[in-house]
Write a structure and sequence with these properties.
mainly alpha; Endonuclease Iii, domain 2; Endonuclease III, domain 1
Length: 211
């Protein structure tokens, strides 16, 4: 079985295991996902989902958040950690959205990368989840599991992992595949405990087990 064939088999098994997997950040407008993915750095999605309720209650639009005092933003988002830098990035990002893009999130990858606080992971998440375009989100779960599976070989840099996955993952599968890796990483192929290989649907196609 070639690496590409094994990748397709892994994708199908994860589809069966996690058919409803999607982004666990809760949002109803594209700009909110931009805010939340910045807050999610070194913070759980569950905590972000709680914190942003107060943020959106006080600043319900791009314009309101763009005009907000950075200290007021920080006071709300502090429980997510790295409050100063996250508040600063969110403020700058919303200002640019308001002034340059008429409060609309651009649907172009390179334009997204120009927004303050937006890196490749965030841009890919927006492209896949908001606009339904090909995307590969290389978060910590994706990087860890793809290395264990042998889809990449001892590569830890997110961009390099992304570039390798583009070679073997069908473009239309990338976004959902990465969401399913998150679910799998939380439930089975864990980081802080020994992975639960005995209940893994990928056990017999995993490089970790000598395949």
């Amino acid at each position: 079985m070639t690496k590409k064939q094994r990748t397709l088999e892994i994708i199908e098994r994860l589809k069966n295991e996690y058919p409803d997997a999607d982004c666990t950040l809760e949002y109803d407008e594209a700009w909110k996902l931009l805010v939340e993915v910045r807050l999610a750095a070194q913070c759980t999605d569950a905590r972000v989902n709680v914190v942003v309720k107060d943020l959106y209650a006080k600043f319900p639009t791009v314009e309101a958040l763009a005009m907000a005092d950075v200290d007021d933003i920080e006071a709300i988002v502090r429980p997510c950690g790295l409050g100063k830098s996250k508040a600063r990035d969110i403020s700058a990002c919303m200002k640019l959205l308001h002034e340059k893009y008429s409060d609309r999130v651009p649907d172009d990858f390179d334009e997204l990368l120009k927004l303050p606080g937006v890196g490749r992971k965030s841009a890919n998440l927006i492209m896949g989840d908001v606009f339904g375009k090909p995307a590969i989100v290389t978060d910590t779960h994706c990087i860890r599991i793809c290395n264990r599976l042998g889809l990449v070989n001892n590569i830890k840099e997110p961009k390099k992992v992304e570039m390798e996955l583009w070679k073997i993952v069908p473009p239309e599968e990338g976004s959902d595949f990465c969401h399913r890796l998150v679910y799998h990483g939380r439930a089975v192929c864990t980081a802080r405990t020994k992975p639960y290989c005995d209940k893994c649907c990928l056990y017999d196609v995993c490089k970790r087990n000598g395949v």
